[in-house]
Amino acid sequence: MSMASIFAESQHLPHIPKVVQELIESFRDDNIDADKISDKVALDQALTAKVLRLANSAHYGVSRTIANPHDAIMLLGFNTLRTMVLASGVSGAFKPPQGFDQKAFWRDAFTIAALSRFLASYTPDCDKDTAFTCGMLHSIGQLLIRIVMPAETASIDEAEKLGGTRHTLESGQLGFSSAEVGAELAKRWKFPQEMQQAIEQQYNPGLEKPYTQLAGILYLARFLKQAREAQQSDDEIRDTFPRQVAQAIALDSEAALADLAALDSLSSGLDGLLE
After folding, report:
1. What are the sequence ranges of the domains in the chain?
2. What are the C-alpha distances in Å from 21 to residues 1, 40, 194, 262?
3. Which CATH number fits domain 97-274: 1.10.3210.10, 3.60.40.10, 1.10.287.40, 3.40.630.30?
4. How many alpha carbons fall within 13 Å on the CB side of residue 32?
5. CA angle 80, 86, 88 (to 5 degrees)
6. Is the pLDDT of residue 205 over 70?
7. Phi-psi region of 69 (alpha: psi -120 to 50; beta: other; left: phi over 0)
């Protein structure tokens, strides 16, 4: 099956609510009407319920109950509301195959999102909300391949358990990678080109291919996640941190690595969507 045939399987393609599509387009519009958007969010009862549950969680620490999307914008800001709605709409758009732990998948995606925002704060001219969204979407191609090509995915899963690198296995067995599929899906959902490029190029630093600033951040975010999962000490992380990648995207690696303790309390604030 070619990559084009994946997107020809329209019955498998995830569909997102119209208001989520409008919020995607808001990344390109500095004059977005936040009140108009919140009105539209309020019309989707399921979406609103998820957003309000998140907004009233301990993570955001608001002093009073947030009762509607307008309150969320006033107390948390438009960017936070946008993140909540995007996360809810995107994570709810996929129908996972039987036996697949979708909660674990999205928990990992939200972790990369939080790490991407952390790294963006040490990177000049890098928007933290854009980096967060890229992190949240970084593995959507893998999920789509899993849904459309379950047999091929099972084979790749087994090879990965034996020590293979997933994106290399995908390219070898399928002729394309999940990063390419994810970038194409982001394009069809009309995410900005810089986000599409970040998803597609997220493995490029390790392959010694050209990559954008956001792609470099995704690469480093995945490094930090894997290091923490391997229970590496802060000193081990500092010793193995891909400083060349950090230098290429102008990330202040010394400042970021001096703040590794912050990773222990890092949270996307989105895990409530998985309950």
Report:
1. 17-92, 97-274
2. 28, 11, 17, 33
3. 1.10.3210.10
4. 19
5. 105
6. yes
7. alpha
Q: List pLDDT tens digits, range 189-200.
A: 999 999 999 999
Nearest to 85 by CA among 96, 108, 69, 61: 69
Position 152 pLDDT exceeds 80: yes
Give me 21's structure tokens: 């599509």
| Among 141, 157, 135, CA closest to 220 | 135
Nearest-angstrom CA–CA distance, 129 and 117: 7
Q: Is 2's pLDDT higher than 90? A: no
Closest-CA residue to 253 (of 227, 226, 225, 216): 216
Nearest-CA neighbor of 19 among 1, 2, 43?
43
Work out the angle at residue 141's Cα, subtended by the Cα atoms of residues 135 and 144, and round it to the nearest 5 degrees.
130
Predicted pLDDT at 33? 85
Contact 191, 181 (CB under 8 A): no
φ/ψ of residue 240, rounded to 5: -110, 0
Q: Which two tokens stand for residue 66?
A: 């947030």
Does the model's pTM come out above 0.90? yes
CB 200 within 8 A of CB 177: no
Q: Is 30 exposed, middle or buried (CB count within 10 Å of its CB: 0-12, 13-18, 19+)?
A: exposed
CA dihedral sign of residues 122, 206, 103, 190: positive
Burial readout 189-215 (b: 16 or more C-beta within 10 A, e: otherwise): bebbeebbbbbbbbbbbbeeeebbbbb
- Pair 54, 270: CB distance under 8 Å: yes
